[in-house]
Amino acid sequence: QVQLVESGGGLVRPGGSLRLSCAASIRFFRSYDMAWYRQAPEKQRELVAGISSTGDTNYANSVQGRFTISRDNLQRQIYLQMNDLKPEDTAVYYCHGSTPGGSWGQGTQVTVSS
Q: From CA 105, how far away is CA 87, in angstroms rounded?
């Protein structure tokens, strides 16, 4: 059974940083593309950053240059380093794995507020 567990969310002031982690119990983890999504209140879930099985990355325009996605295939984890956080980054952040049918974590809350 596939399980994704996010951690690292919290309350941070504008300009601050957070690092999210996602632990994945996915067999053949290294074979799958992974991604971070987020969903703000009353908004649709949106892609924040993705990382392919070969390590290629892509980012939403709104986070380009501030966020960095990475993966550790040995530990079966992905990370999202978030710098220069803004109030509009406030959302629940979800880890996603491109397994058959797709896999989602339960989400971790990130709140950026002074």
A: 23
CA proximity to 48, closest of 60, 66, 64, 61: 60
Q: Is the C-alpha dihedral spanning 112, 109, 41, 36 positive or negative?
A: positive
Contact indicator for 26, 32 with CB cutoff of 8 Å: yes
Rounded CA separation 64/1 (Å): 33
pLDDT in tens, the chain (114 residues): 789 999 999 999 999 999 999 999 988 999 999 999 999 999 999 999 999 999 999 999 999 999 999 999 999 999 999 999 999 999 999 999 999 999 999 999 999 999
